[in-house]
Structure prediction request, 731 residues.
Amino acid sequence: MADFVVLATADWDHPLWTNKQHTAVSLAELGHRVLYVESLGLRPPRPGTADLPRILKRFRRLLRLPREVRPGLWVWSPPVIPGATRGRGLIVNKWLVQSGLKLVKRWLGFLKPLLWTYNPLTLAYLDISTFSGTVYHCVDSIQDQPGMPSARITAGERRLCEAVNVVFTTAPVLQKRLKPLNPHTLYFGNVADECHFRQASSASLSCPDALQAVPKPRMLFIGALDAYKLDLPLLEQLIRTTPQWSYVLVGPIGECDASTDLSAILALPNVHWPGIQPYRDLPAWLAHVDVALLPLQLNDYTRQMFPMKFFEYLASGRPTVATAIPSLVPHREAALLCEPTVAAFKAAIHTALEGGGPSAAVGQARAAEHTYTKRTDRMLAVLQQLGLLRCNHPLSDAGAEVASGLLISFLERLTLQPLLLLEYVRPGSSGRIAPWNTPLLERLVRRELNSRNWIGAVELYALLWQRHGTVVELHRLMFRRGARPDHLGDQIALFEAIQACDQLPAVDRHYSRIVLAHRALEQHNPEAMHRAVNDLYRIATVLEQDSGTLVCQRPNRANRAKQLISCYATILRLQLWLADWEGVVAVGNRAAAFMDRFDPVLIERETSYRMTRNLMRALSIDVFEACRTRDPKRLHQARLRLQRQAEHCQKSCHDGNPAQEDHRGFAVGMMTAVERLELDLQNGVEVSDALRDLMLLLLANKPPTLQEECHYLQLFPWYVPAAVDGRKGWA
Prediction:
C-alpha cells in the first residue's frame, strides 16, 4: 500500500470534522499509511482572543512527535510562527515546515510518499518534487471566506493547480474554474460518514438533555454559524413568522466570519442554541428533530461549495430542506430544495412536517451511495490509472523499529562500516539489513557490481525497491553510460539479469529490454535484433492496451507513454538495420494510431517534452511512406500528427526544461523538412533534399560525415543515392 501526507487546513481535533479528517481516515481504513499535517494558517490571527486557545494548543505540541490517533494514521503539528505568511516570517516558516516534515517522514519511514494537499498555498511551504505524486483537493473557494488574503490565495492556487498531477474538486463550479489550469481536474462531490449518521434512524438513541425541553416540532441546523454563507436575514424572518416551530442551532458562532451577529436571532423565544456538540453525539440530535435545515445564501462562495451536512442529514433519515445551490440540484429527488426566500422555506417545511416530499428511504439510499470510503476508492482508482499509486513504504519488519528521525541518520552512519564488515565475513546476511539502512544496501550493490556478481547486485536492487520503494541506484546504472560496466558482454549479462527479475518494477524490466536492443545494434547481431524486436513488440502491445498510458503522470523514466515511444523508436532502428521496410512501416502505423488517441498535455509535463525526439522519429515513418507512394493526403495527416508534438514542445510551460537534448531544435528541423516535402509533392517534384534531411534526422544525433550519410541512406531500399554530391534519386 502507499504512504500519504495529507496537508490539511484544519486541526485534527476540531469539533466540526470536514473533508480533511474524513479523507485521512478513509485512506487509513483502505490500508494506506497516512500522516495528517495540521493547519499551517492561511490567514493572520484575528485580534482579541478568538484564535488564542488554538495558538496556545499548537505551541504545546511543537516539540511532540507525531501521535498515532488510529492504526496507520499519525497527526503532526508543524512548528510555524502564527500569522507569518509573507516576507521573512514566511521564509522561516517554510524552513520549519520542510525540515520538520523531512524528520517526521524519516521517523515514520515515509521515504517518498504521495502528497494530498488542501492548502492552496502549498508551494510557499513545500518542494512538491520530493513527493512521488501530488493531489490538490479543492473543497471550497477559500479565498472568498472573510479575512483571507484573497489575491495571494488565488495566485497560489493557480500555481499549485498547474504544478500538481491531479486536482479533485467538490463542486462542479470549482471544476469548471480550475480545469483550464490542469487537464486532470475531476469532480468528486462531498460525501458523508453515512454509517455514523444512519444511527439517527435507530430508536435506541436517547434524546440529549438540552433538547428534551424544546417544544415540538423541532427544526435543526448543525454546523458553523457564519454570516458569509448562511442566509441569516432569511433565517431570522422565518423564525419570527413561525413561532409555532422551534429552531435548534448547533455549532460555533462566527468561527470564520468575525462579523457574524446572531444576537437578534438568539433573542427570539423559539430559538435554542446549545453551542458546539461532540461529533459522536450529533446522530442523537438528528434522531429527535422533525426537519433538518440548510438555509444558505446564493453567493460566489456557496455557488462553489458542496455542504457536507447535506448527505449527513439524508443519512439520518430526517426530511431535509435546503437552498438550491448548484451542487445540490442533481439531488433534488432526495431533499426539498428551494429558493432562498422565506415563503419557499416555509412551504417546504410545511410539506416535510405533513409527510410530503422525498421519503427517508430515498434520502438514505442516496447517502449510502456517497460515503467517504466509496469516494476515496474512486479517487484512488484515478491515481492508479495515472500511475501515481504504488507501494512507497518499507515492508513491515518487527526487528527494525526506529527511535527518531535524527537518530536514523546517525545510526545509518554508525552501523554502516560494522555491518558492511559483517557482510564481507558472512555473505548473505543482507537479508537481515534493517529497512532504513539504505547506505548499506547501496554500498553492497556497488560491491557486487565491482565483483561482477550481476545476479547478486540485481537481488539487492530488488531489496531496495521492496523495502524502500526506490530505484534511484538502478536508474543511475541504466541511464548513465558512465555507470555501466565497461565490457559490452558484462552490460548484456547485467541487463539480462535485470529483465529477468520479477521483483523489480515492470517499467524498469522493460527498459532493460530496450537497453539490450541497443546492445544488439552495437554488435550488429541479426539474431539478437530479431529477438529484441519481438520482445519490444510484446511490451508495446501491453502499453497500448493500458488506458493509463495515455494519461500517465509518472516522471520521465517511469512514464508508460515515454516507454511506449522508446519501444517504437528502438523497433524502428532495429527494423531499418535489418533492412525490413515492411516492419518499419508497421511500427510507423502503430505510432500514428497511438498519436491519434494521444494528447501530450495529459501526461506528466516534463515527460511530454522529453519524448519529442523519439515520438517525432516514429511518426516520421508515415511521411516516408506517403512520399514513397506519392500520397498527398497521407502526407498531410502525417504532418498534422508531427505538428501537434512540435507545437507542444514549444509551449512556454517548457521554458527552462532541463532536458539534455535540444528537442525544440529537432522539432523545428523535422517540421521544416516535412513542410518542404509536402510542397514538393504538391508541385510534382520527385527529387528533394528535404527527404535526405529527414532521413538523417531520423537516424543521426549529429551531422554525419559523407561516408556515414551514404551508409544511412542505403538503409532505405526505395531511395538510392545517385552521387556523393548530394543529388539523390528514386528507385
About this structure: The domain at 194-370 is CATH 3.40.50.2000 (Rossmann fold). Residues 391-436, 722-731 have pLDDT under 50 and may be disordered. The longest helix spans residues 87-108. The chain is about 50% helix and 10% strand.
